[in-house]
Fold these 2 entries.
Entry 1:
Amino acid sequence: MLTLVPTDLWAYTRSDGHSVAGIPIDFLLFAMTLIGVALFHNRVLHVALSGLTVILLYNFLVTGFKHGSGMGGLVAHFGHEWVILTNLFCLLVGFALLADQFERSHVPQLIPKVLSRGWVGNFVLLILVFILSGFLDNIAAAIIGGTVAMSIFNKRVHIGYVAAIVAASNAGGSGSVVGDTTTTMMWIAGVNPLDVLHAYIAAVVALVVFGIPASVQQAKHAEIVSADSATLHVDKARLAIVFIILVSAIVTNVTVNLRFNHLADHFPFIGVAVWVALIATSFWRAPDWKLIPGTAAGSLFLLALVTCASLMPVEKLPLASWESALVLGFVSAIFDNIPLTALAIKQGGYDWGMLAYTVGFGGSMIWFGSSAGVAISNIVHEAKSVGAWLKNGWHVVLGYVVGFAVLLAVYGWQPTPIGNSASTAAPTASHSGTR
C-alpha cells in the first residue's frame, strides 16, 4: 500500500554522467549494493545505507537529480518520495505489531485442527495466503501466513516454504485491483479491472508449481504440531483488533484512490490509518511495543533500496511486448516495481494482466525483491540470505516461468488501451497497495 511517483517524475533532464561499457555508473553502484547485500546478508542494513550514501553523493556531485541539481534537486526528490517511504515504513512496522496481536489471539495454534497432516496441509495454508492477498495487503497476507507457519511448525519453517509464502501473497494480489500496488495503479489510470483478471491464469499455475515442492520441503523439514486445544482459548479482543486494523487499511485504500486520489501524493494515508487503528486499539489489548526497534531496522533496509531504485535513470522501457513483460518480472526481483509500472502505464501498449503478473510476482524470486519478503524476513531471520533463498526457493523461479508460459499459450498477448473512466487519474498518480 504505497503512494506512487508523481506525474512529473521525469520532468527534469539530468546530466548523463559517466558510463562503463555503456552502462551508467548509477546502475553499477546499485548493482554493487545488491551484490553486497547478497554477500553480507548479516549486515544488509549497513550495506544498503552505504550504497545509498554513495549513490546520493554521485547524483549530488555529478549527475543531478530527476527534479534538479544540487541541494534543491535533493530536497525536491525527497519531497516527492517521502510519502512512499513513510507509507512503507508504517506498514512494515505496523503489520509486524498486527502479527503479534494475531499470534497472541491463539488462533494460529488452533489452525492445525483444520489442516491435514503432511504436504497437503502445508499446501492448503499457501492457498489461504493466496486468497487473502486478493483483497488484503500482500504484506499483511504474508505476515499472517508466516505467523501461522511459525506457530504450527514450532518455529521450524523451511526457507523454501518461507519463499513460497511470499510468492503466494504476491501471486494472489496480481489479478485483483485492490490486491497489489501495480494493479491499483493500473485501475486508477483507467485500466478496466477485468483487463488484469487474467493474471490469475498464470498466478494459479505458478501457485501449483512452487506450492507443491515447497509444501513437500516443509513436510520433510518439520511436521505440523498440534497444540492442546483444551488449554487454549481464543482472545476474541485481539482477533477483533486484527480485523479492525485490516479493515482500516482496506477502507482507506479504496476511499483515497476512488475519492481523494488528488491528495494521495501529499500524505501517507494508508500507513497513518494502520497506526491510528493500532494506537486506538492498544488501550483494549496492547501489542508488544518492544518489537518496534528490530522491525524498524529491517524496514529501513528496504527503504534504503527503494530510495536507491528511485535515483536510477530509468526514463524509458523497451517497446511493449510479451518478451519485455517477461523480462520486467526478473528486473522486479531487484528493482522497485513501482517506477517500472508507472513507466509502463505512461508508455502504454501492454497486456495489463500479463504485466500485473510479471511485476507483481517477480519480486518473490529474491527475499528483498518485495515488501512482503522483507516483512516475513523480520519474522524468519534465516530468510535474509539471497543464496539460501535461491537454493531452497528454486521452485518460485520455476513457477514464475511456467505460469507465464501457460498464460501466453492460453490467453496470448492481448494489449489493451487504457480507457477513459470516471476514476481515471494521470498515469503516474499516487495509489495505495504494496509491492
Entry 2:
Amino acid sequence: MAIVGYVSRTEHFSAAHRLHSPHLSDAENLETFGKCNHPGGHGHNYVLEIIVRGPIDQKNGMIANIEDLKRWIKGAVLDHVDHRNLDKDIAYFATRPSTTENLAAFAWLRLAQVMPAGMLHKVIVWETPKNKVVFAGEGVTDSDIQECTV
C-alpha cells in the first residue's frame, strides 16, 4: 500500500463583491449583511489555499506536481476571480450571495473539473486575517460541478 500525503498551495487574489441575496428582501439583506450590503460593494485581498491528497509516487516522490497544481488553480479559479467583481463577472454568483462560503465552494467546483478525481482534499479561503472558510466538498454532486460556470 502506498504512503499517502498532502500538499498545499497558497495563492492570493483581490476581488470586489456585495453581500446580497436574491432570495431576501432589501430590508432582510441589510439586516443580514449590514455594511457589507452597501450597494457600491467593497473589496478584499483574499488568500486561497488548496490542499491535495494522494499517494506519494514511488518513482518521482510527489503527490502532485506543483507546476500542475499552479496551472490548475490559475486556470480554474484565479483567472476568473482576480481583480473582478464576483457578483457582476461570475455567473455562479448571479443566483447566490458571494459569501466566503460560496466562494470556497466555487473554487472547489471549478478545480474538480480540471484535477484528477479524488485528489482535491480541501479549499480554504481567507476573507480577512480573522475570517476563513474551509470547504471539503461535502454534499457536492456531479450536477453541481457541471453547473458551476463563470
